[in-house]
Design brief:
This protein has 391 residues and is mainly β. The chain folds into three domains: 65-132, no CATH class; 139-274, Immunoglobulins (Immunoglobulin-like), CATH 2.60.40; 275-391, Immunoglobulin-like (Sandwich), CATH 2.60.40.2550. It has one helix and 28 strands.
């Protein structure tokens, strides 16, 4: 009896121990799972892929540290070098908080396939995973980005002439130096006049915040004006081109008006073709070559161009424009119609540039252009949509 009683006590004790251990293991597992769940962020992020770039908006949930985010972008199946650091984050800090927007400027063909994956690396959680065709920019004024141009017609006073004014054409080249915070626009226009009461063209630059503004006037119906702001890159500007006509009493009235809203981000809001019969044009032999040296952080592009002037030529602009606020920008004007010229800056390799040639006709309007979007890495090869040249 004593031996059996002792065995029952020992058995009960062992059983209790097994239960305690089992409960402890289960509790530890549950605690671990709860901790892991807590460390995995929950964020609702809305994505927008447009022909002029990508925007991600934090709709709610946990704040995400920028250093913890890894961005993967593929265009037509080929991975690009785009990273989270290439974009601009609102909010004034390095946290992607609810209500913040992350935006990057790129140019995608409407029929391309853009895939975006945003990963929170500490938890390996996929925050965004989308594959879509880019859409055209929306036409909502005041929401940032670009909007469609708005045209209006006013009263045009009488005068001698055929009265056959056609629509006002406007081309805007955005050459903003994002790194030094200097908005820079070249606005070309063509406003065939209705009659000899035409007086002048006015181009107004206005911002929706405390940035520099200005108005430029020109007495010719075709030409260009430029605007350089002291600060305000990536902010919204409204650019308005107006034609003015004189009245019988000596005053002036507005004839045609075109208004375009754009963000000063080195991406063109409109590329109207202002070429005419006899306009200067770039010869097909013109090339733009990446000669950058990443090891020395030197950004260098070689322009070998030839312009068929047709006797109607003023100058060319050679631009090496950083698009991501992490490299220098250089712009040069040259009167020579054909030459080889290397243009560059001392920092900003391995990030994307808009490299462009603008050809100005004798009236001062941009009549032809050649542009490539390229990562300044010294090579001319790249995935689809990058390193490409456009007419």
């Amino acid at each position: 009896m004593p031996d059996r009683a002792q065995s029952e006590v020992v058995g009960a004790t062992l059983l209790l121990g097994i239960v305690v251990i089992s409960v402890g293991v289960a509790g530890a597992y549950g605690l671990s799972a709860a901790t892991s769940w807590t460390d995995t962020p929950r964020a609702d992020v809305d994505d927008e892929v447009r022909t002029d770039g990508i925007a991600l908006t934090h709709q709610g949930g946990d704040a995400l540290a920028s250093d913890d985010l890894r961005l993967i972008v593929r265009v037509d199946g080929s991975e690009t070098s785009l990273s989270w650091a290439d974009g601009t984050l609102t909010g004034g800090d390095t946290w992607f908080d609810p209500g913040d927007e992350w935006r990057v400027s790129r140019e995608y063909a409407p029929d391309s396939v853009v895939a975006i994956t945003l990963v929170h690396e500490p938890s390996n959680r996929v925050v965004v995973d989308v594959e879509t065709n880019p859409t055209a920019p929306t036409g909502v004024v005041g929401d940032g980005g670009k909007v469609d141009a708005r045209d209006t017609e006013g009263e045009i006073p009488g005068g001698t002439g055929d009265g056959g004014e056609t629509s006002l054409r406007v081309r805007i080249d955005d050459l903003t130096d994002r790194d030094t915070d200097n908005p820079y626009y070249v606005v070309s226009y063509d406003a065939p006049v209705a009659n000899d009461s035409f007086d002048h063209v006015e181009v107004e630059f206005d911002s929706g915040w405390d940035a520099e503004t200005g108005t430029r006037t020109d007495e010719t119906e075709r030409g260009s004006v430029s605007f350089r702001g002291g600060y305000g890159q990536n902010e919204e500007y409204t650019i308005t081109v107006r034609t003015y006509y004189t009245t019988d009493t000596g005053g002036t009235v507005v004839g045609r008006t075109r208004t375009i809203t754009d963000r000063a981000d080195a991406a063109n809001p409109t590329n109207d073709d202002l070429s005419e019969s006899g306009s200067p044009s770039l010869d097909p032999s013109t090339t733009i070559t990446d000669r950058s040296d990443p090891e020395r952080t030197d950004v260098r592009y070689r322009f070998d161009y030839e312009v068929d002037t047709n006797g109607n030529y003023q100058q060319v602009l050679l631009g090496v424009v950083n698009r991501n606020n992490d490299g220098g920008t250089a712009v040069e004007f040259h009167e020579q119609a054909n030459r080889g010229r290397t243009v560059g800056v001392e920092y900003g390799t391995e990030t994307e540039y808009k490299v462009t040639i603008l050809v100005f006709d004798a009236d001062g309007a941009v009549a032809d252009t050649k542009t490539r979007f390229d990562e300044a890495d010294g090579g001319d090869e790249g995935p689809p949509g990058r390193g490409a040249e456009s007419p």
